[in-house]
Specification:
By secondary structure, the chain is an alpha+beta fold. Helices cover about 35% and strands about 25% of the residues. The strands form 3 sheets. Strands 1, 2, 3, 5, 6, 9, 11, 13 and 14 form a 9-stranded mixed β-sheet that branches. A 3-stranded antiparallel β-sheet has the order 4-8-7, with no helix packed on it. The protein is globular.
């Protein structure tokens, strides 16, 4: 029959289901079976197939799970050898998913290898089409800019996720959202900065920060970074909208284009995956106004990163995911067919994208100085998108194991 986009999407979801099954199974196995050699010895299973199982378990996307898995015969042997060591429920779920995988091979391909070849053809980017994808996003940018009378040249968003000393149940999230080249036409909606955390009842206005300002770690705060914002932004603050957690600003007099940089400290909303039962957490930025460029950085404490798999996606709409209920197996439902590239960078490398831009480098240094954090404590994930899709959400999410 062969694969089309719909059948490929179904297989991607099957791969995500298989990965979830594998994670549940490894949670039941002893620690000694958590390496390739350990699994090989524990189950008396072929080493190369053990390696394929681990590659599938660590794969970032559903289709990559299917590309890494061993053949059906080897999977059936794996399931048989697992049976005495895992619960009946997990054994049954893995058996059902592998059966569906075998049926998919019969339906869409002449062999396992043929299915892999077809999946690669569909999911590997066609370099001839990539400029066209950017052109389409650019067309949407200019159309939305014209419609709304509002645009932003560059959104630079940085999230720092670290462990707390005061409360082990939550992560400390410190975020910088910096918008450069904000331009409003007359009659356009006002400039509003949103944040997902509900503001405290005594919130009056954002604080004006300077390079000497320091964090109050146990208090939710919003600050305007004066060094990276147009003069007078703090005086243009108008009101707070509690229905959508938005802070509203009046026009800046005689300033057709302006910059705005905010720092948020959020100590009590993101649960700690090392102490909580949730299996997934995420950071995201919603493109509520047309923007030419988005740069999203996530700095993750190495203690968290060691026990996590990271992925990225672009999703319909701007809805907030309820904390503690995010599930990797559900992340495909609103995903758009636009796949931003995610890379790991070293902050010490002078040749990475961040360090090639002195202003982005200065903003990150400012944020870490404000938060009293050492950059060597973190793993840094970077996403850079030209013409991010208006009214979409770009999300970097972590599956914890």
């Amino acid at each position: 029959m062969g694969l089309n986009q719909q059948s490929a999407s179904e297989l991607t979801r099957l791969g995500e289901r298989l990965k979830k099954n594998l994670n549940a199974i490894f949670a039941e196995l002893p620690v000694t079976a958590s390496t390739i050699n350990g699994l090989t010895n524990y189950l008396d299973y072929h080493r190369s197939n053990s390696q394929r199982i681990f590659n599938a378990k660590k794969a970032a996307t559903g289709e990559q799970v299917l590309l890494q898995l061993p053949g059906i015969k080897a999977l059936e042997e794996f399931i048989c050898k697992l049976q005495p060591h895992i619960s009946e429920s997990n054994h049954q779920q893995l058996s059902q998913a592998c059966h569906l995988f075998g049926e998919s091979i019969k339906t869409y391909a002449s062999s396992h290898a043929d299915l892999k070849r077809q999946l690669k053809q569909i999911h590997e980017p066609n370099t001839d089409e990539l400029p066209h994808q950017q052109d389409k996003r650019a067309q949407l940018f200019y159309a939305a800019k014209s419609l709304l009378g509002f645009s932003i040249e560059h959104i630079f968003s940085t999230y720092v996720l670290t462990l707390q000393s005061q409360d082990s149940d939550f992560l400390q999230e410190i975020a910088m959202i910096s918008k450069k080249g904000i331009k409003r036409q007359r009659g356009a909606p006002p400039f509003v900065q949103f944040y997902t955390h509900p503001h405290p009842s005594d919130f009056k206005k954002p604080k004006l920060l300077s390079s000497s300002s320091k964090i109050n770690a146990d208090e939710f705060t919003i600050g305007i970074a004066g060094e990276f914002s147009t003069d007078g932004l703090e005086r243009a603050y108008s009101s707070y909208s509690p229905s959508n957690s938005g802070i509203v600003f009046d026009d800046l007099a005689n300033t057709p284009t302006f910059d705005a940089t905010f720092i948020f400290n959020n100590p009590d909303e993101l649960v700690n995956p090392l102490t909580h039962q949730n299996q997934c957490s995420s950071t995201s930025i919603s493109i509520k106004n047309p923007a030419k460029r988005l740069t999203l950085l996530v700095l993750v404490d190495k203690a968290i990163d060691r026990s996590s798999n990271v992925n990225v996606g672009c999703y319909h709409g701007n809805q907030k995911v309820e904390e503690g209920k995010l599930n990797v197996s559900d992340m495909w439902t609103e995903r758009l067919p636009d796949f931003p590239e995610l890379s790991i960078i070293s902050l010490q490398n002078p040749h990475n994208l961040l360090n090639k831009d002195q202003q982005m480098q200065a903003k990150l240094k400012y944020l870490l100085n404000y938060a009293n954090l050492d950059e060597e404590r973190f793993v840094c994930y970077l996403m850079d998108v030209e013409y991010p899709i208006w009214s979409a959400t770009y999300r970097i999410y972590f599956e914890h194991r």
